[in-house]
Amino acid sequence: MGKESYYLVRLDTKPEITADPASLNGKKIGVLESAMVGVLDKYLEDHYVEAEVVKYPGYTELSDAFNAGEVDVMAAESDGASGKDHVEVLSSFGAADYYLCVSKTRPDLLAELNTAQTLLEAEEPNYLNSLRENIIRRA
Length: 139
Description:
Oligomer: single chain
Number of strands: 5
Strand content: 25-35%
Mean pLDDT: 86
Shape: elongated
């Protein structure tokens, strides 16, 4: 169905945190309790970073903690800085693929989903980003 990229973002008041993974040592990184946690853990391990990963059950809690300075960096889907003042993207740390599944006994549903996906990409290429923005604005 698609791919979601994950990014590390910081407030512009923390210039000591840079795109260099070593600058994350000793920092707190906030992340949603989701597939993103495993991807973040692997990134930190691969770059020999010792940081405290703080998991949040929802975007509102994560965003509030980030804005309050309770975490130094936020792991976010998309670019994480969209619509926010004083937030900078540091780097991408991975991605995850998304799939839609149907029963083997319903090939008709698979055909319909494939057609719908193709039409959606052609007619509304920014649909997922628009949907995400609406969700964030309402949170």
